[in-house]
Structure formats: C-alpha cells, structure tokens
Design goal:
Layout (H helix, E strand, L loop, with lengths): L14 E3 L2 E3 L5 E5 L7 H10 L4 E3 L20 H11 L3 E4 L3 H6 L6 E4 L7 H10 L3 E4 L6 H12 L6 E5 L15 H10 L4 E3 L1 H5 L5 H10 L4 E5 L17 H17 L6
Parallel strand pairs: 3-4, 3-10, 4-5, 5-6, 6-7, 7-8, 8-9
Antiparallel strand pairs: 1-2
Helix pairs in contact: 1-2, 4-5, 8-9
The protein binds phosphoenolpyruvate (PEP) and manganese (II) ion (MN).
Manganese (II) ion binds next to loops.
C-alpha cells in the first residue's frame, strides 16, 4: 500500500459549510429528505425547526435502477433558493458530474459525492478546483485507504475542505441495507486530519434502526450525522423506508446535544 503523506493528523481540520463548522467538537446534524421533491420548502422549514444545522438538498440522484425517480434536477433550483431563504441554513447537494456542480453553484453551500462516485476521479479533481466544501461518502466496497486516497484527489487540486462520510459498506449481511462500519470513523480520524461524519440512514435501510446507529456513530467520535428525514416519511419520493419522521429527528437532535455535553476527550 502506498502511504499518503499527511503526517500532522494531530491538528484536526475544521470545515466550514456556509454558516456551520464541521469538526469543531460539536457534532453537526445535516438532515432532509433523500431527494428534493415539490413540497421541499415546507419540509425544509419543519426540519430546520427540529434544530438541525444544515439541510440535505439532493436534486441529482444516483439511483441504482434507471426507472426510479432520478431527482428533480434543474427544476428544483428555485426550491433550493426558497428553502435557503426561509430557513437560513446551508444546503448540501449531491453532484454526479462537474456540470452538476456548476449548475448548483448559486444554490448549494456544500457538495456531496455519493458512494457510487467515490472513485470518479475526474469529478473529484473538478471539485478540488471549484474549491467549495465536499462531503465525500465512502464507496460501499471501498477500503478506508481507498476512501482517504480519493479525498486526496480533491485536496491535491487545492481544496482541503473535505468531510469524510461513512455510510455503510456491502458485506454478507442482508438484513441491513449496508453494514455501518463504525471502526472506519475511528480509523479515518486517526489516519487523516479531516472531519468524519456518519450517514446512519443508508447503512440501516430501515428508519427504526437509524437512531441507534446515530448514537453509535457519536459514541465512536463522529464529527456529525447526515440523516434522511421527512415530515411524512411514507410519502417520500425516494428511500421512504429509511427516512425518519420529525419526532425521531427531534429526539436525535436532543440526544446528540446531550452526548456533546457528556462526552469528554478524546471524542472531541
Ligand atoms: C444520498 O445520501 O442521497 C445517497 C445517494 O447516499 P449514498 O451515496 O451513500 O448511497
Ligand atoms: Mn437516499
């Protein structure tokens, strides 16, 4: 294995996304529906009221099946603008190619690279050049080293504002959608200076399991959570089964803020 030169992992990096800072010791909570849908603005207001720090705002969706809803695309941009205006929260939006990033330039505060694109190196390099913060999800079959190496494609183009996101990996287990690798949080935080957050939703695949996985993530030192939430989860246009409702979201925000007070270093 080729070792990457990032010796100063003791000095943890913080990443600003709009008005929030990830990696400053206070776990950030980013939440919202799997994909932006026509009712997004009101949903965003409800989700903001639950006390989250930033909003999921995916308009370009990388769906496994070509017949599944592919996201609203450019049509959703006015909804993003309105959600940002009404909530005052930063928006995170997934990009599948450099053109998506360009289209979202005025509307997203941070870009998300999904699990399927972790090794799309031309995309990573383009995001390195654009310079806006990037949440880099771990490929579902990527090793921790491959994930960190992918982050270097962004950083070597001059953009160190990278947040790693563990979202579950593919294992022999089929009861869960993916297997949440909590070890990866500990190991990635040891091997890099980047903040590491966790997406318990795509790991669990089932909303009832999301809060427990979120707590596990915080217990091992995650710098934040990326969670699918919706005021009426059953009606969500994608990933309904793993989407939590507002009550569960409020509970998650409260338990996170409680954990923040009770966890002593080295968790921070
Ligand atoms: C998402 O967060 O919307 C998503 C598509 O997740 P993943 O890339 O982890 O499957
Ligand atoms: Mn989803």
């Amino acid at each position: 294995m080729v070792e990457l030169e990032r010796p100063d992992v003791e000095r943890r990096r913080t990443v600003r996304i709009g008005s929030i800072t990830i990696g400053d010791g206070r776990p950030a909570i980013i939440a919202g529906p799997c994909s932006v849908e026509p009712g997004y603005v009101d949903q965003a207001v409800d989700i903001a009221e639950a006390g989250v720090d930033a909003l999921r705002a995916g308009v370009f969706k990388p769906r496994t099946h070509p017949d599944s809803f592919q996201g609203m695309g450019l049509e959703a941009l006015p909804l993003l603008a309105e959600a940002r205006r009404r909530t005052g929260l930063p928006l995170i939006s997934e990009v599948l190619c450099p053109e998506d990033a360009e289209a979202l330039e005025e509307h997203a505060d941070g870009y998300q690279v999904g699990t399927r694109n972790m090794q799309n190196y031309r995309l990573l390099e383009a995001l390195g050049e654009i310079g806006r913060p990037v949440i880099l999800k771990r490929g579902f079959s990527a090793t921790i080293d491959e994930w960190i190496a992918a982050s270097e494609y962004i950083r070597r183009r001059g953009n160190d504002d990278v947040v790693l996101c563990e979202r579950g990996i593919r294992t022999f287990e089929t009861r869960t959608r993916n297997t949440l690798d909590v070890s990866a949080v500990v190991v990635a935080r040891e091997l890099t200076d980047l903040p590491v957050i966790v997406d318990p939703s795509h790991a669990a695949g089932k909303r009832e399991w999301v809060p427990a996985l979120a707590r596990a993530a915080l217990a091992v030192g995650a710098d934040g959570l990326l969670v699918e939430a919706h005021p009426a989860p059953a009606l969500a246009w994608s990933d309904a089964a793993q989407t939590i409702d507002l009550e569960a979201l409020v509970g998650l925000v409260q338990s996170t803020r409680h954990a923040e007070r009770s966890l002593a270093p080295p968790f921070h």
